[in-house]
Amino acid sequence: MNLIERLSHLDRRVIFLLVAFAVVIPMLQPIGLPIDITKPVKKVYDKIESLAPGSIVLLSTDFDPGSEAELYPATEAIIEHCFRKNLKIYVMGLWPAGSDLGNLALNKIAPRYNKNYGTDYINVGYRPGGAVMLLSLGKNFGDIIKVDYQGTPIDLLELGRAVKSSKNLGLVMTLSAGDPGILHWIIYFHARYGVPICGATTAIMAPQQYTYLGSGQLVGLLGGLKGAAEYEVLVNRKGRASIGMDSQSIVHVLLVIFILLGNIILLHQKGKR
Amino acid sequence: MKRTLPLIIVAGSGFFMLVAFFIPSKFFQDTSQTFQNWYIGVAAFFVFIGILNLVKINIEKIQRKLRDWRYCYILLFFLAFTMATGFIQGREGKAFLYMFYNFQTPLGATMFSLLAFFMASATFRAFRAKTPEATILLIAALLVMLGRIPVGYWIWHNYPDLVEWIMTGPNTAAKRGILFGIDLGLISMALRVLLGIERSYMGGGGE
Amino acid sequence: MIFQTIGIWIAALLTLAIYSFLYKDNPFYKIAEYIFVGVSAGYWAVVLWFDFAWPNLFAPLIKQQNFFYLLPIIIGLMMFAPLIPKISWLVRIPLTFTMGVAMALQITQITQGDIFPQLQATFLPFKGVNVYTSITNLIIVIGVITTLIYFYFSKEHKGPLGLAAKIGIWFMMVSFGASFGYTVMARISLFIGRVYFLLHEWLRAI
User: Fold this and answer.
1) Are A145 and A162 spatial neighbours (Cβ–Cβ below 8 Å)?
2) Which one of C101, C109, C118 has the shortest CB-CB distance to A211?
3) Fewer CB within 10 Å, N side or C side of chain B?
4) From B98, which residue of chain A is nearest by alpha-carbon distance?
5) B53/C contact by beta carbon, under 8 A
6) pLDDT tens-digit readout, A159-179
């Protein structure tokens, strides 16, 4: 059996091992490849930069632990940028686990900027109802949100009182892993109330968002871990996303080699026939 | 009655909401807002019924000693324990959040990360340029895979711009065309539901 | 501090238990899998109750005697009707109500929020812009039209229609290839996240 035939019968556990090494080794021995900044990510950065201090950013954490690896680094980077600009952050989640993951980031970053809960940021927890809820929310926040995630009546919190409807929001930043998520914010909330939307999505969802970037319905987009890494560079933050980029690069090169090898095997098999 | 009443409800609530979109009068706006608020309230119960169903299925699995029935005890124990910590200590209770951050988060993240390996294996075994269309797909995939990572920028500084053009040009065009098709399909499906032609969502219930 | 360390070890061992599946299916993987489902379901129930069901539905009814909230609760409770075979048909009421509202809003919002803006965005200029933009705009317009033509099955794809459909397929292949590239990126990123946790938080190697 020649090499090509042996490769065509390669045990998939060998492939698994190669992928594991391709991720682990660059993390232990970083290469330091430069991270370029793409236009959609720069647009998110510029949009947040353009907001006046005191503006309210609604941060919708629409993801769960299954997509935490891609979206949590973006969450931290966005929160850090907002606090640096003295913007106020209103966190909610269209997914149940989203608000607790948002909390993790807030509790980590807020103390560094001396930000206070209730005045500079709040978390109103999980909001079920998807698209229908968003339509009601934009009209009157009080109809939908009665308490924050700790059960405190929303009117007792300064930032809670400040947000009555979509008119009080400067920007909606959605960190979205699926449905309900960015599409609902665009089609239901932005279309009805006109609040600008920026998004961070998993890489799987990113190609679809280019139609909304093109139409202007979406201001900017952080696509996947690479998008989060670009944002970390823009806000000058060494986070998980930037650290993972070397591994991402090496694995992609490995997979390209796999694809090319697979097609060489195909050509060889065709030639034999 | 068992069929007629639900059909009246779907048509009534649906067409009222449709009409209310175009009529700015207080009655229509307030009533449609009320319907929306009720919708959100009712939607919450879908999750509760889902959890009840999960418990029911696992208890049945134990009773009938189906495959892997012993593991169902683990599921039910952790379900009960997590709910107990949450309802006793509250939403922000230490034990409840401990379960979330040290059990649910790592397990959820790891479950989905398994796909990385299977995708790598599939890439090697199945991604073959057997037809001209498959070749176009393969070339586009290779370009994007290398161009979207720091290695692409390192190879050629304008490589990311090429990928960006692929995404904003041909990709946007195709996705938009598909989007129109999906949207028109969704609208036609919605109309079928409102008119009572499509009833599969009603499920069981006797008739 | 000790609880935090124990928590990290629990998370790490559960992570490795899941990854053991890559070698072959085994009891450790199954235990971890069932723990995941149990904890997730329990978490959902608690979060839904405290974040929404109690403050938005039951508290106004019980504490403020606001009977306005009685109807959605009754409709919602009908979701449990299948547990009693005699009245199982009542489950259709909440299902049809929610479907009616959601479908109506879908019709209006998809038209207002998706179709019209996307149509508008497809009317792109070829003149008065630079060459690069002009070519890109032309490609987008051709791509959208040919993709839509591909999905027109009322006439056989022959002659000019067949050629247009073929061009549409090429555009879709480029799009699917790009999506595949991004999918690869997504999946690998998830694994990178776990490796970072194991190396940084558990083993403290980075």
Assistant:
1) no
2) C118
3) N
4) A100
5) no
6) 999 999 999 999 999 999 999
Looking at this protein, which amino acid is placed at residue C27? Answer: P
**Is the minimum CB–CB distance between A254 and chain C shorter than 8 Å?**
no
CB within 8 Å: A191 and C43: no
The verdict on a CB contact (< 8 Å) between B111 and C18 is yes
Could you tell me the two tokens for C22?
A: 């890559």
Ranges of each domain in chain B: 127-207
Mapped onto helix, strand or coil, the DSSP state of residue A61 is strand
Segment A232-249, tens digit of pLDDT: 999 999 999 999 999 999
A63-83 burial, b if ≥16 CB within 10 A, otherwise e? bbbbbbbbbbbbbbbbbbbbb
Judge: C171–B177 Cβ closer than 8 Å, yes or no.
Answer: yes
Contact C110 B2 (CB under 8 A): no
Minimal CA separation from B139 to chain C, in Å: 7
Long-range pairs of B116-120 with CB within 8 A, sequence gap ≥ 24: B116/A19, B116/C187, B116/C188, B116/C190, B116/C191, B117/A15, B117/A16, B117/A19, B117/C22, B117/C191, B119/C183, B119/C184, B119/C187, B120/A15, B120/A16, B120/A18, B120/A19, B120/A251, B120/A254, B120/A255, B120/A258
- Tell whether A21 lies on the interface with C, counting CB pairs under 8 A: no
**pTM score over 0.90:** yes
Instruction: For residue C171, give its domain range.
Output: 124-206
* ipTM topping 0.85: yes
| CA of C151 vs chain A CAs: smallest distance (Å) | 18
Q: Is C102 on the interface with A (CB under 8 A)?
A: yes
